Protein backbone atom coordinates (compact mmCIF):
# COMPACT_ATOMS: atom_id res chain seq x y z
CA UNK A 1 0.00 0.00 0.00
CA UNK A 2 1.68 3.20 -1.10
CA UNK A 3 2.24 5.73 1.61
CA UNK A 4 1.75 3.26 4.46
CA UNK A 5 5.45 3.12 5.29
CA UNK A 6 5.67 -0.61 4.54
CA UNK A 7 6.48 -2.34 1.28
CA UNK A 8 3.79 -4.60 -0.14
CA UNK A 9 5.59 -7.72 1.11
CA UNK A 10 7.16 -6.79 4.42
CA UNK A 11 9.45 -9.48 5.77
CA UNK A 12 9.33 -8.32 9.40
CA UNK A 13 9.30 -11.27 11.78
CA UNK A 14 10.52 -13.72 9.14
CA UNK A 15 13.88 -15.33 8.44
CA UNK A 16 16.00 -14.71 5.39
CA UNK A 17 17.96 -17.89 4.85
CA UNK A 18 21.00 -17.59 2.60
CA UNK A 19 20.44 -19.66 -0.52
CA UNK A 20 23.18 -22.17 -1.36
CA UNK A 21 24.04 -19.85 -4.27
CA UNK A 22 24.52 -16.80 -1.98
CA UNK A 23 27.15 -14.66 -3.78
CA UNK A 24 28.18 -12.63 -0.70
CA UNK A 25 30.65 -14.62 1.43
CA UNK A 26 29.75 -12.62 4.56
CA UNK A 27 26.27 -14.12 4.44
CA UNK A 28 27.09 -17.70 3.37
CA UNK A 29 24.80 -20.07 5.33
CA UNK A 30 23.33 -17.15 7.29
CA UNK A 31 19.94 -17.06 8.97
CA UNK A 32 18.85 -13.42 9.34
CA UNK A 33 15.84 -12.45 11.47
CA UNK A 34 14.22 -9.36 9.92
CA UNK A 35 13.36 -6.70 12.53
CA UNK A 36 12.45 -3.80 10.25
CA UNK A 37 11.46 -3.65 6.56
CA UNK A 38 9.82 -0.60 5.08
CA UNK A 39 10.31 2.08 2.43
CA UNK A 40 13.52 3.18 4.18
CA UNK A 41 15.13 -0.25 3.78
CA UNK A 42 15.54 -3.28 6.01
CA UNK A 43 17.38 -4.27 9.19
CA UNK A 44 18.01 -7.78 10.44
CA UNK A 45 20.13 -9.72 12.90
CA UNK A 46 22.11 -12.82 11.90
CA UNK A 47 21.05 -15.40 14.49
CA UNK A 48 23.42 -18.24 13.66
CA UNK A 49 26.81 -16.55 13.87
CA UNK A 50 28.57 -15.69 17.11
CA UNK A 51 31.51 -13.42 17.80
CA UNK A 52 34.41 -15.78 18.48
CA UNK A 53 36.18 -15.46 21.82
CA UNK A 54 33.77 -12.84 23.16
CA UNK A 55 31.44 -14.18 25.85
CA UNK A 56 28.73 -11.84 27.12
CA UNK A 57 30.58 -11.46 30.44
CA UNK A 58 33.44 -9.71 28.67
CA UNK A 59 31.04 -7.10 27.28
CA UNK A 60 29.57 -6.59 30.74
CA UNK A 61 33.05 -6.26 32.22
CA UNK A 62 33.87 -3.48 29.70
CA UNK A 63 30.66 -1.72 30.79
CA UNK A 64 31.46 -2.16 34.48
CA UNK A 65 28.39 -4.33 35.12
CA UNK A 66 28.54 -7.40 37.39
CA UNK A 67 26.77 -10.51 36.04
CA UNK A 68 26.03 -14.02 37.26
CA UNK A 69 28.27 -16.74 35.79
CA UNK A 70 25.49 -18.37 33.70
CA UNK A 71 24.85 -15.04 31.96
CA UNK A 72 28.57 -14.30 31.56
CA UNK A 73 29.18 -17.49 29.56
CA UNK A 74 26.51 -16.78 26.92
CA UNK A 75 27.80 -16.05 23.43
CA UNK A 76 27.43 -12.69 21.68
CA UNK A 77 25.94 -12.75 18.19
CA UNK A 78 27.65 -11.28 15.15
CA UNK A 79 24.49 -9.54 13.94
CA UNK A 80 25.93 -8.42 10.62
CA UNK A 81 28.56 -6.26 8.96
CA UNK A 82 26.89 -2.87 9.65
CA UNK A 83 27.95 -0.86 12.76
CA UNK A 84 29.83 -3.81 14.30
CA UNK A 85 30.74 -1.85 17.43
CA UNK A 86 27.06 -1.13 18.21
CA UNK A 87 25.10 -3.54 20.37
CA UNK A 88 21.47 -4.44 19.79
CA UNK A 89 19.49 -6.84 21.96
CA UNK A 90 17.08 -9.14 20.14
CA UNK A 91 14.70 -10.44 22.78
CA UNK A 92 11.31 -11.81 23.72
CA UNK A 93 8.54 -9.19 23.89
CA UNK A 94 7.90 -9.75 27.60
CA UNK A 95 10.28 -6.81 28.19
CA UNK A 96 9.68 -3.32 26.83
CA UNK A 97 11.37 0.06 27.08
CA UNK A 98 10.33 3.31 25.45
CA UNK A 99 12.91 2.80 22.68
CA UNK A 100 12.04 -0.90 22.11
CA UNK A 101 10.97 -1.88 18.59
CA UNK A 102 8.18 -4.47 18.83
CA UNK A 103 8.41 -7.12 16.10
CA UNK A 104 5.65 -9.43 14.87
CA UNK A 105 5.68 -12.88 16.45
CA UNK A 106 6.43 -11.91 20.04
CA UNK A 107 9.93 -10.55 19.51
CA UNK A 108 11.49 -7.14 20.14
CA UNK A 109 14.71 -5.20 19.56
CA UNK A 110 16.24 -2.79 22.07
CA UNK A 111 19.41 -0.73 21.74
CA UNK A 112 20.20 0.64 25.17
CA UNK A 113 22.58 -0.08 28.00
CA UNK A 114 19.60 -0.20 30.36
CA UNK A 115 18.39 -3.53 28.96
CA UNK A 116 21.86 -4.99 29.61
CA UNK A 117 21.71 -3.79 33.21
CA UNK A 118 18.23 -5.29 33.60
CA UNK A 119 19.42 -8.59 32.09
CA UNK A 120 22.34 -8.69 34.54
CA UNK A 121 20.01 -7.97 37.46
CA UNK A 122 17.46 -10.61 36.48
CA UNK A 123 14.69 -8.19 35.44
CA UNK A 124 15.36 -8.36 31.69
CA UNK A 125 13.54 -10.38 29.04
CA UNK A 126 13.12 -14.15 29.43
CA UNK A 127 15.09 -14.75 26.24
CA UNK A 128 17.69 -12.46 24.67
CA UNK A 129 20.78 -12.27 22.51
CA UNK A 130 23.16 -9.35 22.44
CA UNK A 131 24.26 -8.80 18.85
CA UNK A 132 27.18 -6.68 17.75
CA UNK A 133 26.39 -5.15 14.39
CA UNK A 134 23.40 -5.78 12.18
CA UNK A 135 22.51 -6.54 8.59
CA UNK A 136 21.12 -3.62 6.65
CA UNK A 137 19.70 -2.98 3.21
CA UNK A 138 19.08 0.33 1.46
CA UNK A 139 15.62 1.00 -0.04
CA UNK A 140 14.94 -1.57 -2.78
CA UNK A 141 18.21 -3.46 -2.21
CA UNK A 142 16.66 -6.44 -0.43
CA UNK A 143 13.92 -6.69 -3.06
CA UNK A 144 16.62 -6.93 -5.76
CA UNK A 145 18.48 -9.61 -3.79
CA UNK A 146 15.22 -11.55 -3.46
CA UNK A 147 14.70 -11.38 -7.22
CA UNK A 148 18.25 -12.70 -7.68
CA UNK A 149 17.39 -15.70 -5.46
CA UNK A 150 20.08 -14.86 -2.90
CA UNK A 151 17.63 -15.45 -0.03
CA UNK A 152 14.91 -17.92 0.85
CA UNK A 153 12.12 -16.65 3.11
CA UNK A 154 11.01 -18.77 6.05
CA UNK A 155 8.50 -17.99 8.80
CA UNK A 156 10.27 -16.79 11.92
CA UNK A 157 9.91 -18.25 15.36
CA UNK A 158 11.48 -17.65 18.73
CA UNK A 159 12.63 -21.24 19.29
CA UNK A 160 14.97 -21.03 16.30
CA UNK A 161 16.09 -17.48 17.13
CA UNK A 162 17.08 -18.40 20.69
CA UNK A 163 18.46 -21.88 19.99
CA UNK A 164 22.14 -21.96 21.00
CA UNK A 165 23.06 -24.67 18.44
CA UNK A 166 24.40 -22.19 15.89
CA UNK A 167 25.82 -24.80 13.52
CA UNK A 168 22.41 -26.47 13.00
CA UNK A 169 20.29 -23.32 12.50
CA UNK A 170 20.84 -22.89 8.76
CA UNK A 171 19.74 -26.47 7.97
CA UNK A 172 16.87 -26.26 10.49
CA UNK A 173 15.65 -23.06 8.82
CA UNK A 174 15.89 -24.70 5.38
CA UNK A 175 14.00 -27.74 6.68
CA UNK A 176 11.03 -25.43 7.27
CA UNK A 177 10.73 -25.29 3.48
CA UNK A 178 10.21 -29.06 3.55
CA UNK A 179 10.94 -31.18 0.55
CA UNK A 180 11.44 -34.84 0.08
CA UNK A 181 10.25 -37.81 2.08
CA UNK A 182 12.43 -36.95 5.07
CA UNK A 183 11.02 -33.44 5.46
CA UNK A 184 14.56 -32.12 5.16
CA UNK A 185 15.40 -29.56 2.51
CA UNK A 186 18.27 -30.66 0.29
CA UNK A 187 20.35 -27.58 -0.60
CA UNK A 188 21.65 -29.39 -3.69
CA UNK A 189 18.09 -29.42 -5.09
CA UNK A 190 17.98 -25.62 -5.08
CA UNK A 191 18.67 -24.09 -8.46
CA UNK A 192 19.79 -20.48 -8.88
CA UNK A 193 17.35 -20.35 -11.78
CA UNK A 194 14.17 -21.24 -9.85
CA UNK A 195 12.47 -17.90 -10.32
CA UNK A 196 11.38 -15.44 -7.68
CA UNK A 197 11.55 -16.46 -4.06
From TrEMBL:
Coiled coil: none annotated. Pfam families: DUF179. The lineage of its organism: Bacteria, Pseudomonadati, Pseudomonadota, Alphaproteobacteria, Hyphomicrobiales. InterPro entries: AlgH-like. GO terms for cellular component: cytosol. This is UPF0301 protein RSO01_86820. It comes from the Bacteria. Belongs to the UPF0301 (AlgH) family. It comes from Reyranella soli.
Amino acid sequence: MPGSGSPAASLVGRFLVAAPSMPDGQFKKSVVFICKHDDDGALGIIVNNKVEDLPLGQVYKQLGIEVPEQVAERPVLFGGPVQTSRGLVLHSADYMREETLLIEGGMALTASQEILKDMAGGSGPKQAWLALGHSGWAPGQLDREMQDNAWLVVDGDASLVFDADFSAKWQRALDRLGGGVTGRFDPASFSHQTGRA
